[in-house]
Amino acid sequence: MNHQFGHAMLEHWSLDPEILYLNHGTVGVTPNAVMHVQQQLRDEIERQPARFMLRELEHHSRTPPAHVPRVRRAADLVAAFFGVQGDDLVFVDNATTGINAVMRSLSFAKDDEIVISDLAYGAVSNTAEYVARQSQARVVRLEPPFPDTSSEAVIASFAAAISSRTKIVVLDHITASTALVLPVREIAAMCHAKGVPVLIDGAHAPGALALNIAELGVDWYVGNLHKWAFAPRSCAILWVAKERQVDLHPTVISWGLDKGFTQEFDLLGTKDPTAFLAAPAALEFMGMLNEQAMRQHNHELVWEVAHLVASRLGTRYAVPKSMTSCMATVPLPISVGSSAEDAFKLQHLLLYQHKIEVPILEVRGRLYTRLAAQVYNQISDYERLAEVLAGLV
Predict the structure, then answer these.
(1) Domain locations in the chain?
(2) Mean pLDDT confidence for 38-45
(3) Residue 286 in contact with residue 230, Cβ under 8 Å?
(4) Which stretch of 73-77, 161-165, 247-251, 256-260 has the lowest confidence by average pLDDT?
(5) Checking DSSP bridges between strand 360-363 and strand 356-357, what pairing results, if any?
(6) Which of 45, 155, 277, 316 has the fewest CB atoms within 10 Å, i.e. is most exposed?
(7) In CATH, which superfamily holds the domain spanning 7-30+290-392?
């Protein structure tokens, strides 16, 4: 682990010093330097609001613009960071918004199948249910092996769920509840061999993984930048393969209708664009930390403390290191409960009585704690958590 990281890094964030924060993954934590850039953009907007919003931010005309719109300049920089072209990438508010745009732009017939994991994020699962309900399609939920798992077993579980009626596979890059890093490239290749397109929910992947979207061979990729990539909330990306851009629409139809993929998503009416425009500054901040060193530190730290916490609680962390990134979901003793309500009560207790912010989740009838490791965390943080949990159980 990199010894320059740890509590000394807290000076870069505005986190409450009274709270032990082990939950970077849920909604992210924006660095002070990036918030400063965002505020500068807000100040600039207010000096000339109409000019900025109507002439500089986006391209409203069918004729070529005299300059590259600001949102396109930001998109080009972000796209290059993730190995793709800016013309194939748009900003959306969050991963759920991007998933909705893709799913609600597709056409399904009665008894068509949408394949999704039971570990999918709740809002994504709800989107699949809603889309299926509109067309009498079916949602097929597979159960990837967890916590004893392997990449090969996960690939096999997806392969077994695909049938001649499958119209799309919705796949997490890193599952929200279990923090598993799934073998996206291999699953996508298997799906394409069967003629099935793949939509990736990469909510936790940008910044957490060394991500080159072009190398994954998928059809759509959605990822939050406001979690592990340090952008302000709300900021996410939607990348779409060129052949999938026709007939793809945002969930809000506005001035960009029929003007092409990027304009349709860029022209969504009056909103605060500063989170999108500050995204390149967030990637620069990651570069200042040394992104490879950051990821290595987070990976090694969470791997070590997952075993530490499990050992202290008398449980076992069974996920392979290759399927762990900067989060790890550790099983709690059965005595703490088994329901979502039990999870909520324990998480509430940890925060308000012990001043520890950490997710407690119910997965398949058992409670887990999802540990997140960011550069401002160190081993002593998790030792404190383990001591408190051990006392409670």
Answers:
(1) 7-30+290-392, 41-284
(2) 98
(3) yes
(4) 256-260
(5) unpaired
(6) 316
(7) Aspartate Aminotransferase, domain 1 (3.90.1150.10)
